Amino acid sequence: MRREQSNMNGFDRKIREILPEGLMSEDVRVLQINLGRYCNLSCKHCHLACSPTRHELMPRSVMAEIISSLGENKFDLIDITGGSPELHPHFRTFLEKLCAKGHNVQVRTNLTNLVEPSLSDLVPLFKTLRISLVGSLPCYEKENVDAQRGDGAYEKSIAAIRLLNRAGYGLEDALSLQLVYNPGGFSLPPPQSELEEDYREELGRRFDIHFSRLLVLTNMPVGRYRQQLERDGEMEAYMKILKDAFNPSILPHLMCRHQMSIDWNGTLYDCDFNLALGLAVNHGSPSHFRAINFHQLKCRSIMTGIHCFGCTAGSGSSCSGALAPLTESSEMGRFSFGRPLLDCTGIAG
Description:
Number of strands: 8
Number of domains: 1
Strand content: 5-15%
CATH superfamily: Aldolase class I
Mean pLDDT: 88
CATH topology: TIM Barrel
Shape: globular
Radius of gyration: 20 Å
Low-confidence stretches: 326-342
Structural class: alpha/beta
Number of helices: 12
CATH architecture: Alpha-Beta Barrel
CATH class: Alpha Beta
Oligomer: single chain
């Protein structure tokens, strides 16, 4: 036991104070598929360090294997991500085949691509297939979005949301458009429901645009954000914020307990952040989709690391946003949870 404890990371040790068996999955209800690292943007907070210079793309053969291996297995959601997944040359065919099998499909987009003339067919295709969309808009202020994502990203994002609204997205129940926020500063995100009100008010007043729901995400100490923290000498301080805000009530809701991620090369991961770190599924489960065993993967020991404190801090964080509402016991002010200023930093003024 002493040797086992010494091999554990800090998150594992914390978890075992509450769950002696460690963190275990309960099911695979969401299947997330990463089509690669190629993206038209190089966002400063990107945990996968995607960019126009990355060339990793899921081969057509792996896409075919996934379609074939899904068989009769049905999931609550198949979540398509990247990179910028809509730039994959076989993206449209992949969506059509997934939908033809009756799967509920969601696509994550940085929004900016949707206004490009070469991709003008995508919004009509999304609408025809009833694809749910998750669009990244890390702030409602132009300066902050462009600072994170590059000059012109904000204007293109707003134009894309207008285009989607005209198609019914964000207005019709069957055409879901969720927006994603992440802090611009050194803090945890504010309460999701309060920030959603701010987004609706600001975007509605300025542009008369609409969306279905706002998701708030904690910046994970992975990828480019970790590099920034280390460069600025703030890694230790940020990890202290995450650890001090550890919320045990989040544990039953962690996405890794009901979700699994497939990388562009077919490797299986417990979550998108483990994928970024190369921590493939372990503990007896197959690590490649070619040998997938859904029954075995439903109850597996989850690979963890200190980055997992990002998912359990405050109201929790996942690919579907906050995991629980904040309470007074969360000591909101202590961890910069306060209601945001108009600069979208998430830091209370």
